[in-house]
């Protein structure tokens, strides 16, 4: 069975975006040289990405080419509006837990849970997240979109690894 891996950047105080949904604060921690924050290894281990509708629209709003065109993208959304017609994008608009369980049972590589926080909490409450790779960046945002909104249920995780970077970032990996 495929694993769902949450890989996400988070501020020291637990936020993944500013109150307006902005992620510009990530720009000061660019991937370069050997400071890829575990991204390359993660990206090679997956063949699919899973994200919420707001995250999907935010990525489109950056005005860049769809960054996951070599992967199959699954968007959890109320609306099925494909803003990336050249990419393989599928929408899950109902029976979310059932459909994500089906994705896990398909043949293939693992699935990257890109975000956002509401989807993370929903999948955590359904015991569908197998690994978490949290890249803590040395910044305090003070407010914004929390990594774990909507009160996820209590779960215990095992430390797989931790790695620090010259930028002050820390990648901490956990499994169930």
TrEMBL record:
Pfam name, any one: RibD_C
Domain Bacterial bifunctional deaminase-reductase C-terminal, first and last residues per copy: 3-170
InterPro entries found in the cross-reference section: DHFR-like_dom_sf, RibDG_C, Riboflavin_Biosynth_HTPR
Protein's name in the database: Dihydrofolate reductase family protein
Organism: Bacteroides vicugnae
């Amino acid at each position: 069975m495929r694993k769902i891996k949450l890989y996400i950047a988070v501020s020291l105080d637990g936020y993944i975006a500013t109150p307006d949904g902005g992620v510009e604060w990530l720009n000061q921690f660019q991937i370069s040289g050997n400071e890829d924050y575990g991204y390359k290894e993660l990206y090679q281990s997956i063949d699919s990405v899973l994200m919420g509708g707001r995250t999907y629209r935010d990525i489109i709003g950056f005005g860049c080419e769809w960054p996951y065109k070599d992967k199959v993208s699954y968007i959890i959304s109320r609306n099925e509006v494909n803003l990336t017609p050249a990419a393989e994008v599928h929408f899950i608009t109902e029976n979310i837990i059932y459909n994500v369980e089906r994705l896990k049972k398909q043949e293939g590589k693992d699935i990257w849970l890109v975000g956002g926080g509401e989807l993370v909490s929903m999948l955590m409450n359904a015991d569908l997240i197998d690994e978490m790779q949290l890249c803590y960046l040395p910044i305090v945002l003070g407010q914004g979109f929390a990594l774990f909104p909507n009160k996820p249920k209590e779960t215990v995780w095992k430390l797989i690894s931790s790695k620090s970077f010259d930028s002050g970032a820390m990648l901490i990996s956990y499994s169930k």
